[in-house]
Write a structure and sequence with these properties.
The complex is a heterodimer of chains A (about 290) and B (about 260). In chain A, about 35% of the residues lie in helices and about 30% in strands. With about 290 residues, chain A is α/β, with parallel strands linked by helices. The model of chain A has no long low-confidence stretch (mean pLDDT about 90). Chain B has about 260 residues and is an all-alpha fold. The two termini of chain B are about 25 Å apart. The chains are: A alpha/beta (about 290), B mainly alpha (about 260). At the A-B interface, helix 2 and helix 3 of A face helix 1 of B.
Chain lengths: ~290, ~260
């Protein structure tokens, strides 16, 4: 069952087409990574899910509800973390928790205590006194305090230190075990690769690639690193892309015949050779170079 | 919780406006026994008749303390108009300017309900301000004035402030829905209030443009007329209420449909 279903949705700002006939499904209980460069349409898509932005055509369903007409039902069961975190700077963090609780009509004391401990949040400070990373932590806690069924996270780990970032991902994996679905965008591609079940890549408002995370990097290329005496001939081989050298080392993406590469290397002295699946970052660069 | 937060957020402007306006009323009423009818002679010496008319001081019987209250009316009216315009212009646009709209509207409540709650708090403060100034007026009359005075006229003056404030607030709220930038919305709204006041002054000095009085709420309710006739013009009351309702409805509608782009 899909918790998010986006069907042929388009949105433009005047002459700028932000999202174009986008189709995307997020299944119940999965973590879906939504990646793309700045301005690709990630935040616009996320905002349409919560009725912050209206869309021009197509249809959207979130948890079975239409954001344009039933956004309250969606917001009751969804936690949202914005990429830029702005909350009331004059309010103490504890007051912000109470403010958020009041809209959900709950008292989430134990859950808040757990989030505060895990994310290392100082509840006595005013929001305006916090650093960007600490604001992000408060925003994450507010988004999760009502135990939502769906989490929509726009760059959630942005500004977090490595320990808190690890804690956050552990928390997300725990939530996933409870059946929570997570839709998140990130620029930290290795984290997307590590934690997501499926990944969608958006470019110019269109989904250009989508697959399970383990297959996402299969773009017909292998990532090759070689340390050898003479590497000049290698760059000329058919199927070599993104060739870079540094001293006796070189790295490139290779889509040609592996036997021809090995035959070419046989002519020179080779110190080491690594042939691997490309990382998500390389895939990203492959589409956006 | 939203209601409580809005109460806290708007308190300072309310307190300052109410205090200043109340002191102004008390001060002007306290002058009545001292100056009495002498004020007319002073006015005639210092001020042309057109200007007296423009600021609502012409044609008043200064042997009555109520006439001094009519003078206070226009200043408090202007002051309340400026306060209310600034407050209503910021009701929702401040959430957009401070970029907190995305957080607020991510919470499970209808946008219209959030906006109406915020409007209600601002409206309650405007009402509270008028009530306190009204009470200050009654107390001042009781304390400083020995002669008879019309309590009905004092109540009608307060009602006129309230209706004028309602209109200025509604207008400012609608203007803010056109820009969603708190600072510019407040500046434009306050500018419009001051421009309407100046328009009323100009109309009073130049009878040829008297038809323009229909667009200035400062002409809809005049202290001198309320004191003299002990009534409000029903036609302007209806226009004021109808226009206010339309402007608030239009503003809410625009904000509900507005894209939240942070």
């Amino acid at each position: 069952m899909s918790v998010i279903s986006i069907n042929k949705v388009s949105k433009s700002y005047g002459k700028v087409q932000a999202v174009s006939e986008l189709n995307l499904q997020v299944n119940e209980g999965e973590i879906y990574g939504f990646i793309g460069p700045n301005g690709a349409g990630k935040s616009t898509t996320i905002r349409m899910l919560l009725n912050f932005i209206s869309y021009d055509s197509g249809s959207i369903s979130v948890l079975g509800f239409d954001p344009a007409r039933e956004d309250i039902e969606i917001k009751k069961h969804t936690g949202y973390v914005a990429s830029d975190t702005f909350m009331y700077s004059d309010m103490k963090v504890s007051e912000l928790f109470r403010f958020t609780e009041s809209f959900h009509g709950i008292k989430a004391g134990d859950r808040i205590d757990m989030l505060v401990k895990l994310l290392d949040i100082d509840t006595h400070k005013r929001f305006g006194q916090l650093s960007f990373g600490n604001r992000k932590k408060v925003s994450i806690a507010c988004a999760m305090l009502h135990s939502p069924r769906l989490l929509i996270l726009d760059e959630p780990s942005n500004g977090l230190d490595p320990v808190i970032r690890r804690n956050l991902y552990e928390l997300l994996l725990e939530e996933k075990k409870k059946g929570v679905s997570i839709f998140f965008s990130s620029h930290v591609l290795h984290e997307v690769q590590r934690f997501c079940d499926r990944i969608g890549l958006i470019k110019d408002g269109c989904l250009i690639k989508e697959s399970v995370a383990s297959e996402f990097t299969d773009i017909g290329y292998r990532q090759v690193r070689i340390e050898a005496e003479n590497m000049q001939d290698i760059a000329q081989l058919e199927g070599v892309a993104g060739f870079e050298t540094e001293g006796h080392q070189c790295r490139f993406m290779y889509s040609g015949d592996m036997n021809r590469l090995i035959a070419r290397l046989a002519a020179t002295r080779v110190y080491s050779i690594h042939i691997e699946e490309p990382e998500l970052e390389n895939v990203f660069m492959h589409y956006f170079k | 919780m939203l209601f409580k937060r809005e109460l806290k957020r708007n308190f300072r402007a309310f307190a300052v406006t109410t205090l200043i306006s109340s002191f102004l009323v008390i001060y002007i009423i306290s002058m009545a026994p001292t100056f009495g009818t002498d004020i007319q002679q002073i006015l005639d010496m210092k001020m042309p008749k057109e200007l007296q008319n423009a600021i609502g001081m012409k044609g008043l019987d200064y042997s009555s303390a109520s006439s001094f209250y009519a003078i206070a009316f226009s200043y408090v009216y202007l002051f309340l108009g400026i306060y209310v315009a600034g407050a209503f212009a910021a009701v929702v646009s401040k959430e957009f300017s401070d970029k907190t709209a995305e957080y607020l509207f991510s919470l499970p409540a209808k946008r219209s309900r959030i906006i109406i709650t915020k409007l209600m708090v601002t409206g309650l403060y405007a009402l509270g301000s008028v009530l306190i100034i009204y009470i200050a007026s009654l107390v001042s009359f009781a304390a400083f004035i020995d002669q008879d005075y019309s309590r009905a006229a004092i109540a009608l003056i307060a009602l006129a402030w309230l209706m004028g404030s309602l209109f200025f607030g509604a207008l400012a709220f609608f203007i803010s829905s056109l820009t969603a930038q708190s600072k510019s919305a407040s500046l434009v709204s306050i500018g419009v209030v001051v421009a309407m006041y100046l328009l009323q002054v100009i109309i009073s000095m130049n009878g040829d443009i008297g038809f323009l009085k229909y667009i200035s709420p400062f002409d809809w309710f005049k202290g001198s007329d309320i004191i003299r006739y002990e009534s409000l013009d029903l036609k302007y009351c209806l226009v004021c209420l109808l226009m206010s309702a339309l402007l608030i409805w239009g503003g809410i509608r625009r904000f509900v449909k507005m894209d939240v782009l942070v």
